[in-house]
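step: validate -> pass
step: tokenize input -> pass
step: predict -> running
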Amino acid sequence: MRERRIKWDQLIISILIPIAVGAVSGLLTRDSMMMFNTVKKPPLSPPGWLFPVVWTILYILMGIASYLIYQYGTEAEEVSLALTTYAVQLFFNFFWSIFFFNFEWYLFALIWLAVLWFLILLTIFRFFKIDKIAAYLMIPYLIWVTFAGYLNLGICFLNR
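step: predict -> pass
step: emit ->
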């Protein structure tokens, strides 16, 4: 593994991108916890305060992972493809909460989340080919989205 100097400006921007995606999505769904508290939820549903904490940690990990990949240079085709896949999954991440909370399209949100899950997995595979640490940093995100899928499915069935 080659030794790298941290480029702090690039690292901070890489972390701020997913945090901004989450913040804007959160702003657009700011009443979501009121809705979440009123729906029937499956067992193991965490308290509402836990979601922003977990998402903040996940966005930081995602940002660090994307920074590590970016350091390999976007002129390399596999790096460009990996970062494009990362950007597409961020797009899907952004809209899931809007579909789920604002529109209460639980089934559509579940399908959207399944696509997001696949895109995260694809991002992990593409990151792994370039930098294993970057791939490993994305695994907690995949696990959380898997859990979100369980919650989404439960809410979908319990609130028909």
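step: describe -> The two ends are 52 Å apart (CA to CA).
step: cleanup -> pass
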